[in-house]
């Protein structure tokens, strides 16, 4: 009878808020998932950025761009800027996932353990804004490094690396140059981050199974579909942001954007006016982007769920780091700190298995 009551408690806890990871664990798991997904999909990201900026390597089309980059920079050209991207993405994804999960605990209905699509959109947008503001200078430097290549006259690139790029931009263009395009980025991240997390939460429900029973492949598919939808909708903001970041009077012409403009609104206008495809120029590079963002988000969410499984195992909730099978008799509705106290009292109490009240 006692075991049956405990199993009922465990089952009931699954329908409530999931607060079984510490803030630090969520932070690190988010960072690891971002670095893993960015490194694997770096070649597609490089082509996408060069398309958005409008460099000459991309004028011949999507597939030819890969050949042009390889011819010019070799294999390493496809990972150009990946170092600074990972430096940026670890804290970016860490802040984003940690913020979203904290807000998820706040906005989730305690009776059902679910969050509405509107609340998911709101929480995802706020998490994306927090992450963007925190890490924006590194994104700007990543764009400069990706667009940077050898000057025909001097036969060497303008920037020698991450720190040299930071220093050069600060010295030649001033502190606020590191925040070029941030307002556009915030406008774009609201539909992208909000749409991605809201779509991911919505797609979770379509599988008609508890989240802890979903396989890595199902998480991967959800991530791919969610990001594809959100990124397509918000892509024009990302294109304008890249052009704003690449704009500089101190770099050679081949590194700069393909249109001249003054500010965010004018960049939208001039891109539409001057691009051969008109308004669709705002979606220039979307093929490379979708080819990149779908697996990127899929890997990111799958990697995060894998890290989460490991954390739940370390915290004592599950029997294995590879599956979400609860430890028999262990309450799943306690925070890690509360569970630690419960386990200690369980050991010292001579096998007492009563569950303490949740604070």
Record the SSE blueprint.
Elements: H1 2-14, H2 23-40, H3 42-53, H4 62-73, H5 82-107, H6 117-147, H7 162-173, H8 182-206, H9 216-246, H10 264-274, H11 286-315, E1 318-320, E2 323-326, H12 336-348
Antiparallel strand pairs: 1-2
Helix pairs in contact: 2-5, 2-11, 3-11, 5-6, 6-8, 8-9, 9-10, 9-11
Search tags:
359 residues; mainly alpha; Mitochondrial carrier fold; 2 domains; two-stranded antiparallel sheet; 2 strands
Q: Can you walk me through this structure?
A:
The protein has 359 residues and is mainly α. It has two domains: 1-20 and 327-359, no CATH class; 23-316, Mitochondrial carrier domain (Mitochondrial carrier fold, Alpha/alpha barrel), CATH 1.50.40.10. The chain is 65% helix and 2% strand. The protein has helices at 2-14, 23-40, 42-53, 62-73, 82-107, 117-147, 162-173, 182-206, 216-246, 264-274, 286-315, 336-348, and strands at 318-320, 323-326. It has a two-stranded antiparallel sheet with strand order 1-2. A hairpin with a 2-residue loop joins strand 1 (318-320) and strand 2 (323-326). Helix 2 (23-40) packs across helix 5, helix 2 (23-40) runs antiparallel to helix 11 (286-315) and helix 8 (182-206) packs antiparallel against helix 9 (216-246). The radius of gyration is 23 Å and the shape is elongated. The two termini are 26 Å apart. Residues 4-15 have low confidence and may be disordered.
